[in-house]
Amino acid sequence: MNNNSFSHDSTSQFALSYELLHLLQWLGHHDIDKLKKIIAKAVANGLHDEIQRANSTVNHTILEDMQHSIINFFELLEVILADVINEHVEKKAREKNLLPTLDHFDASLFDLETVRSSLENTTKKLDSHPHINAKELLCKELLKNWKPLNKQVN
Asked: Which tens digits make up the pLDDT trace of 19-55?
């Protein structure tokens, strides 16, 4: 996920990651009732009053604060989505008994993103081809995604 998607500069625009756009689309299609309940709770707990107050006293400071709140909200969604995806990948890797395979590698050789994407690709392939050797497939994925930090091989 792109951690540099958001800027707190009030003159610039911000970009939403592909993953966050997918999340928002999915929520709009699949969880409308839950979203409605969240919004109803917010209205019942004072959101409507805040909106009415803001409508009567619109000033640039409030608008800028609102812009920062939106940016902070999307940043929060990005962080939560990344955490949930990582937990999901780890759970699937545990179910496929892939984590012990990682213990056979020097952890300093791989960054977390390489390990995460390799586990994700491996579990996806195992879902559609369950008879493939999981350990061998994980090793292939790690090698495919590995980008050595130095050019020298010992």
From this structure: 999 999 999 999 999 999 999 999 999 999 888 887 7
Is 111 within the bounds of a domain? yes
Tell me how many domains the chain contains.
2
Closest CA to 101 of 55, 74, 134: 134
Where in the sequence is the domain holding 127, given as residue range(s)? 59-148
At residue 81's C-alpha, the angle toward residues 76 and 83, to 5°, is: 95
pLDDT at residue 30 in the model: 93
Tokens representing residue 128 in the block: 């559609």
Residues 91 and 129 in one domain: yes
Q: Does 96 score more than 80 pLDDT? A: yes
Rounded Cα gap, residues 76 and 5, in angstroms: 12
User: Is a pLDDT exceeding 70 seen at residue 127?
Assistant: yes
Same domain for 131 and 103?
yes
CA distance linking residue 61 with residue 10, whole number of Å: 11
Residue 8 lies in a domain: no
Query: What pLDDT score was predicted for residue 2?
Result: 44
DSSP 76-139: HHHHHHHHHHHHHHHHHHHHTT-HHHHTTS-GGGS-HHHHHHHHHHHHHHHHH-TTS-HHHHHH
